[in-house]
Amino acid sequence: MGGLVSPATLLGAAVLVLSAAGAVTAAPTTSPALASGGVRASVLPGTIGTGAASRTTLDRREQAVSRDSQRDARAHAADHRLQAVTEQQAKERNAALAQLAASAHKQAGVIARDSWHLPVTPGVYHLTSRFGDCSSLWSQCHTGLDFAAPEGTPIHAVANGTVTDAGYAGSYGNRTETTLADGSVLWYAHQSEIGVKVGQRVVAGQVIGLVGSTGNTTGPHVHLEVRPGGGDPVDPFAALVAHGLKP
What we know:
The chain is of the alpha+beta class. The chain is built from 4 helices and 9 strands, in the order αααβββββββββα.
């Protein structure tokens, strides 16, 4: 009897075996971290390789960003070149306009210097005898244009020139003669007073004397004659109109 195992002993051994088996089966489901109150660190099914895919996606995004940056850089460079070209063209255009303005200003000065002026201020005079009029008042037909105005009214030089004669001239009374650059000669007759001297340079609009009635006259006026090249007289009215004036 001493060699047999009692039923109680067998039952205790079976409980120990079952307890050990349960411990082995439960061990994989609980990590030491969980046992100590930590977070479970097991890997979920289907997540193997996710890190590589994320890296590939990131690389593609970086490449896209790089391409966008290069495109933006090229666009910026193109805009910069266009702006530079536009600014250069603007500078050249402004320089050309400035040169044109300077040339126009210079030409305007030349035109102004060569422009003609009425011998008496408009509104002060009225025309009486005209070129070609014929009567007993003259020994021959009238050779000038008469601007009648009150005695002492200023007489202006019609054009730029040099005084080549100034003094009493018979039936013309006190007369001033100026010679222009092209050789034309202008006469201003019947002055009450001569205000210039021979050899003096005069410019258009300058006062050269005063209206009077010296010589052969019927009243105060200035008798204007125009003699191209110093030759025979022509109609002063037409000459003034040709120079942009309206007598």
